[in-house]
Amino acid sequence: MKSLFFTIWRKEMLDAIRDRRSLMAAMSYAFFGPVLMAVAFMAIINDAVSESDVYVNIEGAEYAPAFVDFLGSRRIFAGTEENKARDIDVIIPQDYQDKLARAEMINIVVRADYSVRSESSQRNRVETAIREYSSTIAAQRLTLRGISAEVIRPLVVDKQDTATKESRAALILGTVMVFVLMAIFFSGMNVAIDTSAGERERNSLEFLLAQPIPTHWLVMAKAGAAATFAFVGAVLSILMIPLVFVFVPLEKLGIEFSLSAVSQAQMIVTLIPLALLASILQLFVSFRAKSFKEAQTYISLVMFIPVAVIFGIEFSRVEHPLLSVLPVTSQHQMLLNTIGGQAINWLHVGVGGLVTLALTAILVWVVTRMLKSEKVIFGL
Amino acid sequence: MITTQGLEKSYKDVKALRGLSFEAKDGEITGLLGPNGAGKTTCLRSIYGLIHADQGTAMVDQIDASQKPLEVRRRIGIFPDKFGLQERLTAREHIAYFAALHGLHGKTGAEAVQKVIDDLGMQDIADRKTAGFSQGQRMKVALGQAIVHQPQNLILDEPSRGLDVMSTRILRELLYSLREQGRCILFSSHVMQEVAALCDRVVIMVAGQVVAEGTPQELCERTGQSSFEEAFVQLIGTEEGIML
């Protein structure tokens, strides 16, 4: 019986590997997921970290040279020919010096389109600089009147960040893990469709089912072939992560990122049951379809569920004890903990794996029953 | 040997088989002849156990297909109604796959495959991928995968559709040589000339029932017609060949 399994598995693998187009489609997902994330991170980091010069229109600079100098010390300059000013106007009133001398309130106008999101950090920097200068003047005035500047600062926030470097990394790199999980669901998809709905479309299903093969071995071998692809996709994306993140300057964000070979191996082992479940689920759906196209439609609808779950949890950060033993979520938690450098609850991982495998076994049984029904075989 | 006894099968509102009984002996070519929609394919499918008859039994070498489908499938070679090829495999890999499913691995498997390739005269296409094969070449591959395990019984569902003269000859030679080896060959067709030329015995079925059985010669004599075609038309009782 074992040799039957390997005969079918080997044939499906050969068939799938020769299908270059779907092979590329499958693996490119696993490959480009981490690369895409790395590129996105590079952009975010450069934007967040680099204190680049901000060029704005400064009207009435001549009325307040000291103020303009201060802005300059905060790297905010008036726009010039080479460095075009942004659409942010800083308007200094004509009576600046008079009001300053009389200790009256001075309105500095910051005029900009506050709905332009790309300039929000620049607007913030301008406003912060003005507030800073304002409190400097206030402090000096109080000192002149013999009052300590501390009088107007009754409460001071003392920020003590308990985030470890790893946990900060987890916050950001968690999104990468979403891609690893999605690679599982997408890398084996084409193979699963081809081996089920494709087989029916080619009219080769009837002959195959009329061979002396116990149906459950046929189902397991086909699911096994699709799962192999799903698994290879996941392994590829896990191996890609440390490679591509070498190029991302994560240390600028104070994030220390390292993924040891042992952690990678642990992640890979954890994902095996999920690859099996994803593939049998895809077989279950696409054996019901009459053609390749139809199967693709159904599968993309069904695959939406795990993807929605992963994204939902990733962004809402819901927590519930059940989540740590359910398929998809338990594996997701394990990946997150690994990358966050937290202790991994192997009991949860184990139970999650068993639940996943049990669900896989049930689906194998269901698909086997389906393939014994005339309706499904002949697409009646 | 293949026997059916009182096979009955109905789909929702259509009764495909109504107590079909016949026998196909070893060392003979038996033709299952009937107009379109007579239930030929349903009958063959129930012999290899993909369709479960509501009533009656289908036996291959005295083994009931509904009881032990795997045992039955080991003893038959099938040329199904619809045969699709794995287009990314070569003809040789294709046949070897099904040989392996019948337990022929390694050297034994390779030899069995080579024998079939030689028998069917497909050396020139053996190592080409089956995508783009002509109808005749596809038929050879389908025949090859059906007989690679040297089954005692061979079931063919309209094997000669879409074949040119040369391919039909190869098919005929193959069936004759298998008959010489004492195998049981059952094939369905709606083309009476083919059946008359090829078969030792003919089973004429209409609307899920056997209406006549015998050698083409006997059927002509029984109906008093000189040609087999006239005999067939008279037996199925309508000129169009469609009857319910």
From TrEMBL, chain A:
In this chain the ABC-2 type transporter transmembrane domain maps to 30-365
Query: Where does the record say this protein resides?
Result: Membrane
> Does the record bear Transmembrane in its keywords?
yes
**Taxonomy, superkingdom:** Bacteria
Q: Which keywords annotate this record?
A: Membrane, Transmembrane, Transmembrane helix
Looking at the UniProt record for this protein, which Gene Ontology cellular component terms does it annotate, in alphabetical order? Answer: membrane
Matching InterPro entries, A to Z?
ABC2_TM (IPR013525)
Q: Where are the transmembrane segments?
A: 21-45, 169-193, 225-247, 267-285, 297-316, 343-367
Pfam families named in the record: ABC2_membrane_3
Q: How does it sit in the membrane?
A: Multi-pass membrane protein
Tell me one GO molecular function of this protein. ABC-type transporter activity
Among PANTHER family, the record links this protein to: ABC TRANSPORTER PERMEASE (PTHR43471), ABC TRANSPORTER PERMEASE PROTEIN NATB (PTHR43471:SF3)
The name on file for this protein is ABC transporter permease
| Organism in which the protein naturally occurs | Aliidiomarina haloalkalitolerans
Automatic annotation (TrEMBL), chain B:
Checking Pfam families in the record gives:
ABC_tran
UniProt entry keywords in alphabetical sequence: ATP-binding, Nodulation, Nucleotide-binding, Transport
Matching entries from CDD domains are given as: ABC_NatA_sodium_exporter (cd03266)
Among InterPro entries, the record links this protein to: AAA+_ATPase (IPR003593), ABC_transporter-like_ATP-bd (IPR003439), ABC_transporter-like_CS (IPR017871), ABC_transporter_ATP-binding (IPR050763), P-loop_NTPase (IPR027417)
Query: What top-level branch of life does the organism fall under?
Result: Bacteria
One MF annotation (Gene Ontology) recorded for this entry: ATP hydrolysis activity
Q: Where is the ABC transporter domain?
A: 2-232
PANTHER family, sorted? ABC TRANSPORTER ATP-BINDING PROTEIN (PTHR42711), ABC TRANSPORTER ATP-BINDING PROTEIN NATA (PTHR42711:SF5)
The entry sums up its family as follows: Belongs to the ABC transporter superfamily.
- The molecule here is called ABC transporter
Species for this entry: Aliidiomarina haloalkalitolerans
